[in-house]
Design brief:
Elements: E1 4-9, H1 17-32, E2 35-39, H2 43-47, E3 53-56, E4 84-85, E5 91-92, H3 95-104, E6 109-114, H4 116-129, E7 132-137, H5 153-174, E8 176-182, H6 189-197, E9 202-204, H7 212-224, E10 230-235, E11 247-249, E12 255-257, H8 260-272, E13 275-280, H9 292-310, E14 316-321, E15 324-329, H10 330-334, H11 345-352
Parallel strand pairs: 1-2, 1-6, 6-7, 7-14, 8-10, 8-13, 9-10
Antiparallel strand pairs: 2-3, 4-5, 11-12, 14-15
Bound molecules: 6-O-phosphono-beta-D-fructofuranose.
Length: 361
């Protein structure tokens, strides 16, 4: 039977989204002969009237998409349909409009590419609307549960690693301590992975409380040993030593992480006398070409998600476990937030290399 399949990207973008849209389209159209519709701007496209969607086929999703950053369908990380912010400052439940949008497009099933927040919303919508839904995890933060990797993470790690590669020579030229602030929201995966790959001396992540004095003593030891520079990686959500969040609040009152590296640079410089500089890497980690690993993951997830729909499955999430794509119940994945395992082998590796987490380990 010919199905009508929708695909949307939701939440913050990352590298590999176009590759997954391509994989979904190719598998559905060539493998099963279905019609595919790409929904614009995540759930916003389903709220619009007329619904904003474009037919997708192998002509539209040519091979160049596998290399392109961003998402050509657009996305949003604002506008939870269950509490949608209205211009007058109130919040409206617009979930039923989305369900009606799915019906207007006559979709038999929907694939949503998103992080934990988006998948939670999509799960609730599918329960309310009774439509078939398959989730694909993406986020540079890599904090979605039950999958070893989400699309976009490894590219972000590569970008942060390259930043350390570039900071190290300039640090050595000027006898400086360079501090790199990376994204990741409340999870320290990017800092941890890039810190090891980029040869950091100190890695600070939200999962491990630190003391500034211990960081300072590590830096002093490095300089005392004859090395004239040091590299520190810090996750954006690390708190100040006093336990305060460092956030930026915009004119509308919305806040986001940013600026902890400035705080740390000042403290380290005061305590050690070393000259410090900080770099906030920001959205560079989300844009640009996906790494080969993310292209592969996106392709594997896209094909498998379509196969699940062909098998009549719903409310499942595709995940990467033990070198395989497998499926898990979506509600279980949503409830399994994945912070850094501080007793896991990656943290153990970092400690084994002599990298400090600013704690008394
Ligand atoms: O969740 C992905 C992410 O890039 C986080 O790492 C970061 O804190 C946040 O999104 C930034 O969001 P925005 O694009 O709204 O600034």
């Amino acid at each position: 039977m010919t199905k009508r399949l929708g695909v949307l990207t939701s939440g913050g973008d990352c590298a590999g989204l176009n590759a997954v849209i391509r994989a979904v389209t190719l598998r559905a159209t060539q493998g099963y002969g279905w019609q595919v519709f790409g929904i614009k701007q995540g759930t916003m496209g389903l709220m619009s009237r007329p619904v904003e969607a474009v037919p997708l086929n192998s002509d539209v999703v040519d091979v160049s998409l596998i290399r392109q950053g961003g998402t050509f369908l657009g996305t949003t990380n604002r506008g939870n349909p269950f509490a949608f912010p209205m211009p007058d400052g109130t919040f409206l439940n617009r979930s039923q409009e989305i369900i009606e949008g799915i019906r207007a497009l006559k979709l038999d099933a929907l694939i949503g590419v998103g992080g934990d927040g988006s998948q939670d919303i999509m799960y609730r919508l599918s329960q309310q609307g009774g439509f078939e839904y398959i989730a694909i995890p993406k986020t540079i933060d890599n904090d979605v549960g039950l999958t070893e990797q989400s699309i976009g993470f490894m590219t972000a790690v590569d970008v942060a690693t390259e930043a350390l590669d570039r900071l190290q020579p300039t640090a050595a030229s000027h006898d400086r301590v360079m501090i790199l602030e990376v994204m990741g929201r409340d999870a320290g995966h990017i800092a941890l992975h890039a810190g090891i790959a980029g040869g950091a001396d100190v890695i600070l992540i939200p999962e491990v409380p630190y003391r500034i004095e211990l960081i300072a003593s590590k830096i002093r030891k490095i300089f005392a040993s004859g090395r004239n520079f040091a590299l520190i990686v810090i996750s954006e959500a690390v708190l100040t030593e006093e336990g305060e969040k460092v956030i930026i609040t915009d004119h509308s009152g919305k806040s986001r992480y940013g600026g902890i590296s400035h705080y740390l640079a000042d403290k380290v410089s005061t305590l050690t006398g070393a000259e410090t500089r900080y770099t906030v890497l920001g959205h560079v980690q989300r844009g640009g070409q996906p790494s080969s690993q993310d292209r592969l993951l996106a392709s594997a997830f896209g094909v498998y998600a379509v196969d699940l729909i062909a098998q009549g499955k719903t409310n499942r999430m595709v995940t990467w476990q033990n070198r395989e794509v497998v499926e898990v119940p979506l509600d279980e994945a949503i409830q399994s937030y994945q912070a850094v395992d501080i007793n896991g082998s990656i943290v153990h590796t970092a400690r084994g290399l002599g990298i400090s987490f600013g704690d008394r380990f």
